[in-house]
Here is the input.
Amino acid sequence: MSKLHELIQEYDFLFPVPHGGILQSLDELEQLIHEIGDRKFVSMAEIGSCFGGTVWLYSQLFGADGCHFTIVDINIDPWLRKVIYEIQKRKNICFHLIEGPSSRADIGSVDFLHIDADHRYHMVKADYERHSPQVIKGGIILLHDTLLDEGPGDHKSGCIRFRKELEDNGENITTFGGTIMLCDCFGPNKSNPDDRSIGISVVYK
Ligand SMILES: C[S@@+](CC[C@H](N)C(=O)[O-])C[C@H]1O[C@@H](n2cnc3c(N)ncnc32)[C@H](O)[C@@H]1O
Here is the structure.
């Protein structure tokens, strides 16, 4: 079993419903891991952590021993604290929690940034503009939901619009699509009704 599959099983065992699993797509994560390979990061940050699904995965898959991991969320969920507690039993990672709006947070200099907070266009753009300059040259920025079109309006499809804008601007960006959900956000059988991808994009600085 791959490290990813082991971590997913362990997360689902340790943190069962009601919160509904890791808010990601399995096949997108597999492509991301293939893309990143064995590289490890020493200073990571995530904007939008919710129940800690990606904190659990990314810190253990991509974090170097002794790395720092900054979490920014408007609400630090009690489940997230439990996730951190469990990670620290397994790996030497120093977490920094910033509870509040991302528009005010200072993540410091990082080599890995995951943006997965408010998906409205103006908000994902604001997160990117505020925090991506903190990513060092050679570092990466992950953007989530960059293929997810949840209907008319700006609410979720804002990430699609912003991803296209980065592509049009000639940024070095790669996007992965997949439909195998790890959470029940599309219903109890975790299947994505219209085979719609969620989308993870990697921007290389
Ligand atoms: C989609 S969830 C994150 C999911 C998580 N990355 C995962 O995959 O498990 C979005 C999170 O962003 C947070 N959030 C939304 N708007 C925010 C803002 N303006 N500043 C900080 N956090 C925000 C929400 O509280 C929520 O926990």
Remarks:
- The helical segments are 3-14, 26-36, 53-62, 78-90, 121-131, 158-168.
- The chain has a mean pLDDT of 91.
- Strands lie at 21-25, 41-47, 63-73, 93-99, 110-115, 135-144, 173-176, 181-183, 200-204.
